[in-house]
Amino acid sequence: VQLVESGGGLVQAGGSLRLSCAASGSTFSINAMGWYRQSPVKQRELVATIFGGGGSTNYADSVKGRFTIFGDNAKNTTYPQMNSLKPGGTAVYYCRTGVIKDWGRPHQYDYWGQGTQVAVSS
To answer: Which residues does residue 93 pair with via DSSP β-bridges, in sequence order?
Structure first.
């Protein structure tokens, strides 16, 4: 499975960005997609997840109410809509997919994208 993220960029605080992550290859087995962010001053944080089928979502408290993740199963793509961005949201955003049961550990079928940079200016 290959993942390609896009949509990052520079935005002012309070602004919005919409990222995307498209999965290709042997996607028949994947069951969920998650988005992480990591900056040089913070440890990696899982910010949003979405499961296939019913599309249930979960968010980190740090982004709840500001981020919404959408999924398009037909395109194997997810789109986190990030509103009211804060300077603390400056990070590289990564998507992850595979056969995921526990976001806190690696799995046999577990794939990461290359990341897309988001910079939020104050």
So the answer is: 37, 116
Cα separation, 88 vs 65, in Å, equals 16
Q: Which residues contact 24 (CB under 8 A, 6 or more apart)?
A: 1, 2, 4, 76
Segment 23-72, tens digit of pLDDT = 999 998 899 999 999 999 999 999 999 998 778 999 999 999 999 999 99
Instruction: Render 35-103 in DSSP notation, one character per residue.
Output: EEEEETTEEEEEEEEEETTT--EEE-TTTTTTEEEEEEGGGTEEEEEE-S--GGG-EEEEEEEES-S-T
pLDDT score, position 39? 95
